[in-house]
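Quick one: examine this chain and its backbone structure tokens and tell me how the chain folds. Here goes:
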Amino acid sequence: MLYCADLKLREVAERLACRLDGDGDVDVNRVAGIDVAQAGDLTFFTNSRYASALRSTQATAVILADEAEAAPCPMLRSATPYLAFARALGLFADEIKPAPGVDPATSIAHDVSLGEAVSIGPFVSIGSGASVGPRTIVHPGVHIGPGAVIGADCVLHSHVAVRERVVIGDRVIVQNAAVIGSDGYGFAQRPDGTHEKIPQLGDVVLEADVEIGAHVAIDRPAVGETRIRAGAKIDNLVQIGHGVQVGRNVLLAAQVGIAGSTTIGDSVVLAGQVGVNGHVTIGEGTRATGQTGITRSVPPGSFISGLPAIDNRAWRKAATSFQMLPTLRKKVAVLERRLAELEAAAHSSSD
């Protein structure tokens, strides 16, 4: 639950571009879930499974869809209620933002370029030739390697590592302990069976408005680049291999793993623990459900599941059949015994 000074519901409606239905003079001071909301709370309703909670909510006001049933309190109606809810959280957030300036407990090379109103926390290290854009916030313990370029209005949370020559666009958020530009997994086998490391000298580029979750690893290739295009959102614990191309507005949920030299088209959604082979292309707008294994290229607009990945409808039918296999196995065993008995009887009668 988020707190701030009281706002009139009428003001909230105006700022969220919602249609007010009810008393606009009531005060709201926080956002809360529909099942726990009390007087003074603004809540939201976007899922029909919570219809009973809507009817009995104690909230002062609720955000809901234009066509949703009426609530027992003033309503903010919207064609996109979940988006309105997200923006309401921003209205009520008590954001803790460090003041501009450079903490003295930093290690910054003499030729680093710092933009206007940057905030650099303690124990940050920034290598030679790097640059940090205006109003960017670098939290304590971040490492920015030599030659790295960080855009404007970015936020790098504690213990992020931005390796050498990485380029990060404007308004990028990187959560704690992510590593951007780590070495790709590349080794050449020697005649004696041991492995020699292939130098990973390529580039990593994160375009504008990308968000990277905690403990994400984005690898650089030996040659060429790994690129995350504008608007992509990457959840915690995701591995992106060397030379991968991630399209615009892609969503990658937790524990997705993408092997090297794969291309992910625009607006693709990969749910949790999806695995993707290297050197394949996933077409624009594809959706993959959790734990799908993508072993070959997928055409645009696909909806896939399973390992190896197949059409979701076919996979659901197959999953239903899996549950029937023990019973089918018993029936087959019975039929095999009956067949053997009939064959034995037929053989006896022919004698």
